[in-house]
């Protein structure tokens, strides 16, 4: 079943940052939905894969830091 998780994203300061993070997360296999809130610094991800490491790696690959929120 799909599940939702949230990531704290560090370093986003403008709307283009949001678009970069959304694009990166959307391309991770298993991801079916992504929303990123600039003001909160939080990404909400719906994914079929329980492994969060590829999500965090994708965010880091475009220049931001990410940590799982519980
Ligand atoms: Mo906006 Mo974000 O000019 O790295 S793209 S600050």
Care to give the gist of this entry?
This protein is of the alpha+beta class and 70 residues long. It is 30% helix and 37% strand. It has two helices and four strands.
Which key features would you list for this structure?
70 residues, alpha+beta, Alpha-Beta Plaits, 4 strands, globular, binds dioxo(di-mu-sulfide)dimolybdenum
Write the layout of secondary structure elements.
Layout: E1 3-10, H1 15-26, E2 31-37, E3 42-47, H2 53-61, E4 65-69
Antiparallel strand pairs: 1-3, 1-4, 2-3
Bound molecules: dioxo(di-mu-sulfide)dimolybdenum (9UX).
Dioxo(di-mu-sulfide)dimolybdenum binds near residues 13, 16 and 17.
End-to-end Cα distance = 19 Å
Summed over residues and divided by their number, the pLDDT gives a mean of 97
Main sheet specs: 4 strands, antiparallel
List the secondary-structure elements in sequence, H or E: EHEEHE
Unreliable segments of 5+ consecutive residues: none
Number of domains: 1
Content of β-strand: 35-45%
CATH class: Alpha Beta
Q: Portion of residues in helices?
A: 25-40%
Subcellular location: Cell membrane; Endomembrane system
Protein name: Heavy metal translocating P-type ATPase
Family: Belongs to the cation transport ATPase (P-type) (TC 3.A.3) family. Type IB subfamily.
Domain HMA: 3-67
